[in-house]
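Forum > Structural Biology > Help requests

Title: Can anyone predict the 3D structure of Transcriptional regulator, GntR family?

Hi all, first post here. I have the sequence for Transcriptional regulator, GntR family but no way to get a structure on my laptop. I'd be grateful if someone could post the structure tokens.
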Amino acid sequence: MADNLQEQLYQNIRAALLEGRFQPGERLKIRDLAAQWGTSPMPVRGALQRLVAEGALEGEAQRSLRVPAMTRERFAQLLPVRINLEGLAVELAAARIGSAQLEVLQGCVERMHVALQQRDVQGYLRNNSQFHLYLYQACANPVLLRLIESLWLQVGPFFSRLFTEADLSLRLNSFHADCLKALQAGDGKAARAAIEQDLSYFGQYLLNLLSLEAASGRA
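Reply #1:
Sure, ran it for you. Structure tokens for Transcriptional regulator, GntR family below:
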């Protein structure tokens, strides 16, 4: 029972990191999380320690851990790796994906569109995470998936920054729609190109944001 609870807590916190529900630099207090889920601190501590081992959290404190802060240098190192790995996953997935999976992706695109219209940040990030990670699962390469998810755990908390500066809402979903159309047409190379454009476009935006913060002394 304890092992099952720790696994459930691990998956919940992990999903929150992937969806950008925690901010870079935010402290996660074990007792607060235990109270939130109505459990003892022990399974929460075990779940957080697993995320520390994966590089998603940092610190050794008994009472709190921290979401790693994002720097321009770190993001610049992560971005090209993500582009190559996620692009490969999409191209592999295109040859395997079926109609039922395409319907799930279509639903994600539609919900992201609605979330953007309503300025629902968490709704958009949740469906953005589902779109990408669900699509990558179709590549049927567990080694590739583990690498991708490890990188997402590191960058997920920074995604919410897309909504804190210039309004990019008109562009946020266009690459997803292009990718979906390519997948529906069975064009793996075009689907890969759309995802790589998505990562490159917003990656460059976030790099510029980090540069401005560093210049102003806030990074």
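The mean pLDDT is 88. The chain has ten helices and two strands.
Shout if anything looks off.
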